[in-house]
Design a protein that fits this description.
The structure holds two protein chains of two kinds. Chain A contains twelve helices and ten strands. Chain A is α/β, with parallel strands linked by helices. Chain A has a ten-stranded mixed β-sheet with strand order 7-6-5-4-3-2-1-8-9-10. Chain B contains one helix and no strands. Classes of the chains: A alpha/beta, B mainly alpha.
Chain lengths: 397, 40
């Protein structure tokens, strides 16, 4: 698929009321990883662009990116900007380097605009010293871990095939014990073969303030593991998620904020979505690769080689130029970008067609229901039933 | 078919009267910076 380049000319997107500016900037500060997780969408899926890029984001790219973010925040009057330090494994870039990058961006942002930086790490490189550095620069730390027991993390191995679990959980426990205010949460990829209640209990025991349960990336052409696409099929992921939903819902006060479930409940109650897993809220995140390329979110790389490319870069283009890219615009189009059967479905305001990357089918692109459609239905209907039974307050009048 | 009839959060002020502990905490929070779900 040819890249579609947009020149840095023409009317500014900031002048158009229908434009949704970027609010979350994902910086690929290091393109390599010290782990080789078997399901990784970056290194094990269709796109191999990482091989042609520098491993480390250079000082020049960091500086230019910071200036472009500040330019965007100023043009759109943003009061908050989220910065995600991502990889690969971002801590391979060095904690002090990440801290300096964050400080520089804070300096450049306009008055009245607050920066919210996080780093998403596999946890294996978290040491007392690195945590002190990150927390000292106001960087919150998210950890990727698939469960709270070694058996839940068999897919997370290093390049020699050795389990990463013991190193990751050691770092995570340091984070929870010594820097709880910097603990952003845990991301876990769902494996429907595991015991859902046991997995949830073990994750909750790690005391994450927030938890998200991610469906493995896949689509109609390259289906996710343990799932045979079709309309009349078992729903292994839906069954697993509803079991975890019940453990969470019935767990009493003090449960972690499970992002997928809270998104589902928010949408059922008429609130807007805050993420890309569910709902129709315009998606406002953008990625900068180690070489300065501006890309759509890298989960699209699970669909086909080059799926996230825009042909833009921070040296020649502004983020407003990226807003005009057709791929970005498609994710701001709401229900209009969905398949006809999705637009006609009574659940569409909740599921929103599911995550964009999961809709892909070779030949028809992204105008399809999610490959997880039946599983999402299972979860949403179950959550709606539990919510209705909880009898929230009736509206006045 | 259709989902059960649920209250519209946008029309509620009342939320603190919810007795379900997990729902009450959720409602406080959902009462936007992140979108990319491969990070917090």
């Amino acid at each position: 698929m040819a890249q579609q380049t947009v020149r840095d000319t023409g009317p500014s997107a900031a002048d158009r009321p229908d434009v949704h500016p970027f609010r979350q900037f994902v910086l690929k500060v290091h393109g390599h990883c010290n782990l080789a997780c078997r399901y990784c969408y970056l290194y094990e899926a269709a796109d191999h662009g990482w091989r042609d890029r520098p491993a480390l984001m250079s000082d020049a790219v960091l500086e230019r990116t910071a200036r472009r973010i500040a330019e965007h925040a100023t043009a759109h009057g943003l009061r908050h900007v989220a910065l995600v330090l991502h990889g690969g494994e971002p801590l391979l870039a060095g904690a002090a380097r990440l801290g300096s990058a964050v400080d520089r961006l804070r300096t450049l942002l306009p008055d009245g605009c607050t920066l919210h930086p996080t780093v998403q790490t596999n946890g294996t490189l978290l040491t007392r010293g690195r945590l002190r550095t990150l927390a000292g620069h106001g960087i919150r730390v998210g950890v990727s871990l698939d469960g709270g027991l070694p058996a839940h993390n068999t897919a997370r191995v290093d390049h020699a095939g050795r389990p990463a679990w013991s190193r990751a959980v050691r770092g995570l426990r340091l984070l929870a014990a010594e820097h709880p205010d910097a603990y952003a949460g845990v991301l876990a990829v769902v494996d429907p073969r595991t015991d859902p209640a046991e997995t949830y209990a073990s994750l909750a025991a790690l005391r994450p303030p927030r938890l998200d349960l991610l469906l493995p990336h896949g689509n109609w052409t390259t289906p996710p593991p343990h799932l045979t696409p079709g309309t009349d099929r078992p729903t292994p992921y839906g069954d697993w998620l509803t079991a975890v939903f019940d453990a969470w819902w019935d767990g009493g006060p003090g449960q972690p904020a499970v992002r997928l479930f809270e998104e589902c409940l928010a949408l059922l109650l008429g609130a807007p979505a805050g993420g890309e897993s569910l709902g129709l809220t315009p998606f406002t995140a953008v990625v900068v690769e180690t070489d300065g390329s501006i890309e759509q979110v890298d989960t699209l790389k699970s669909a086909y080689d080059g799926a996230a490319a825009t042909g833009l870069d921070v040296f020649r283009h502004s983020f407003d130029n990226a807003l005009a890219h057709p791929g970005v615009a498609a994710r701001h189009a709401g229900a209009a970008a969905l398949a006809p059967e999705c637009r006609a479905c009574p659940l569409v305001r909740v599921c929103g067609g599911g995550q964009y990357a999961h809709r892909y089918r070779r030949g028809t692109g992204f105008a399809n229901p999610s490959v997880y459609c039946a599983d999402l239905q299972r979860l949403i209907r179950h959550a709606a039933g539990r919510l209705a039974a909880a009898r929230p307050p009736k509206q006045a009048g | 078919g259709e989902l059960p009839e649920l209250p519209d959060l946008l029309a509620l002020g009342e939320l603190r009267t919810v007795e379900h502990p997990v729902l009450a905490e959720v409602l406080e929070r959902i009462r936007m910076l992140w979108g990319f779900n491969s990070a917090f």
